[in-house]
Amino acid sequence: MGGSYAALLTGFYVDNGPQLPVWDRLPHLTYWLLPTAVGAPLIRRALRRFRSDMSTRPRTGAHAVARR
What we know:
This protein is mainly alpha-helical. It has helices at 2-16, 28-56, 62-67. Helix 1 (2-16) runs antiparallel to helix 2. It is rod-shaped, with a radius of gyration of 19 Å.
């Protein structure tokens, strides 16, 4: 979902960036790279947090039976 959101923002800024008040002063390449540059670290942080949370949970259900 985070990647889709970054793609959505990229499309929005590429299409509408020249008409936005502050964005019209930025180089055109910024419209393509900035949403990914902001979104990638946030996605990475969320994945790290999710993985560490999953490793500390006790195994239950079908996964616990399969691991025994």
